[in-house]
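Form 7-S
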Amino acid sequence: MNPTNLTNPKNQSTQTTDNAKNRAQNAQSAQLLYADTLLEDFIKECIAHSQNPLENHINQTKYILTQTAALSQSAKHTLNELVSLIDSPIKIAVIGQFSSGKSTFLNAILGQKILPSGITPVTAKVCEICYGQTLGLEVFFANNTTTLMPLEFLNNTNKQTLAKISHFKLYAPVEILRSITFLDTPGFNSQNESDTKTTNEILKQADGIIWLSLIDNVGKNSEKEILHSHIQKYATKSICVLNQKDRLKNEDEIQTSLKYANEAFSGLFSHIVAISAKQAQDHARKAESNIQAVLDFLYTQIIPNASSYKPHRILKQLQALTLQELYMTHKYALRLQELQSYLSLQNAQIKFDLLQTHLQDEFDALFRQYDAQLENLSLKIFNALREQEIEFSIPHKSAFGLTKLHTLKQTITTLPKDEILSLLTHNENQTIRDLRKLRFQISNFGKSFECFLHQELQTFQETFHKWLFQVQKYTQDNEQPLTITLTKDYQNASQKALFALQSELETLSHLLIISYQNAIELALEKIDAKITFALKKHKENPKEFALWIPTFENIRDFINQGFHYGLYQDKLFLTNSLYKKMLFNLSAEIEIFYQHYATMLAQKLADLAQKKQNLKAHLKVLRDGRDLM
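Output:
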C-alpha cells in the first residue's frame, strides 16, 4: 500500500461506491439471516415432531451446534451418519490374516458365491455387503465419484483400475443382510501397509468382529501379535472362526486345535468355533460345516448387544460433537477477547510507538528554526541601522522677549530601508533559502507522520492476518470481511486526523514564503515611520519629545507582526500546537473506532457465552440419556 493513499482526495469520491457495496452486503446478510431463520425453524419443527428419542437428540444437537455458526462439513457428515445408524443394520467386520478364506466364508454366510476368492487384487479393497432388492455392485472411486458395475467387475478388475478405487458396496437380496451388513476387509498381513490403517478404522465402527484363522496354522506368534495389538480391546464383540476344519483328519484333531486356540487366544475373543466354509457351500454338508455356530453367535450375542449398545454409541458421538463444539466455542471466544483487548490498547500503542520515533523532536524543531530565522532577520535589520549627525534650528526667546533661532547638532539613528529591502529580498539571500528549506520541512512533517501511520496500519493488518489465521481454526464463520472492515475503518480514523494536520501545515508552509516580501516591507516601513515621526516631534520640541532609537527587541516585534509570529507560535509551539491537537484528534477517532467494534464484539461474546451455556446443558442431557433407558 502506498502511504499517499491515506490522504488522496480521490478516496473520498469512492464513498458512494462503498455505500453501494455496504448496501449489497447488508442485503446479502439479510438473505443469509433469513435462510438461517428458515433452517432454525425447520430444525425446531423436526425436533417437535420427532417420535424417536435418538433422532430427537440428533436434531437437538444439530440445532445447538448451529446457534452461532454454520455446521462444519465434518459435523454434517457425522450427524447424517448417526441418523442413518438409527435404523441401519448392525455392521460385522470380517478380518484375518491374508488368504485366510474371508471371501469364501462370506459366500458361505450369504448362501451364494458372489465374492471372488483366492489371492486376487479385489480382496485388497473394503467391500461392504448390504441388503438390496437386486444383486448389484456400486464402485466408489478415490475422486469421490461412484458408478454401478456388473458383479463380473469383481473378477475382471486390473491393478491400474483398482488403484483408482476407494471401496465397493455389494447389494444382495439375502435375508440375513436385512439385519447385518458385512464388511470384507483387507486384513493386517497384506503387502500394502495402508490396509492395516483401513482395517483399524473399520474396527472402531463395527458392532461385531469375526476373526478368520486357518485351523491348521492357528496361534502363530505373528498372529498373536496382531490380535494383541489390534483386536484385544474389542474382545466382547469378537468371535474367532477357525476355517478349513475339513483339512483335519478327524474330530479329535479339530478338538485339539480348538483347545490350543482357546489357550493361545485367551481373553481375546468371546467365542471360538471351528468351521468349514467350503462344506457350508455344499447344501448336503452344511450342517457338518458348523457354519450355524457362527450365525448363532451373531443372533444371540452380537445383534442383541449391538441393539442395546447403539443408543449408547450414538449418544457418545453426540457428546463428542458437543464437547468439540464447546471447545471450539471457548477457543473462539478467547480469540475474540484477544481482539477486543488489542483494539482497546490501540490509543496507548500509537502513543507508545510515537515515543519511539523522532517525530516530536522533528515537530518541535520547526518552531525553533522559525524563531531563529526571525531572530536572524531582526539582527540583520538592527545591524543595518546607521547613525547620522544632523543640524536643525529651534526658536528661542531671550530675556528681552526677542525670538532667535538656535542651531542644534544631533546624532540620530536612520534606517536605510531601500538598501535593506534589496538585500533581504534578493533571491540569493541566505534567509530566503533558509525559509524555503523551513517551508519544505513544515510540509514534509505531514508526510513523515503519514509514513508513521502507514507503518501502524501495516502492523495493524499483519496482526489481524495472524489473528484471522488463528480464529479460523475455531469457527465456521468467515471473519475475512470483519478483518477488511476493521482495517478500512482503522485507516479512515487515521486519515481524518492526518488530513486535518496536513491541511494546517500546508497553510503555514504556504504563508511563510508568500508573505515574506510584504512582511519585510511592512516591518521596515513601520520602523522608518516611527523613527521619522519621533525626529519630527523632536525637532519641534526637543525637551518634550525624544528621538526614537530602535532596540533589537523593537525590531523583532515588528518582524513578528509581519511574519504572523503569534499564529506560528500557537500552531507550532504552545500547549495547543498542531502536534498535540493532532494526537487529540487521532485519539478521539481511534476511540470512536474502538467503541464501535467493542459493542459488536461484546454482543458476539455474549452470544458465545449463551451458546456455551446451551452446549453444557445439552451435554448434561446427553450424558443423562434417561429417555433411552
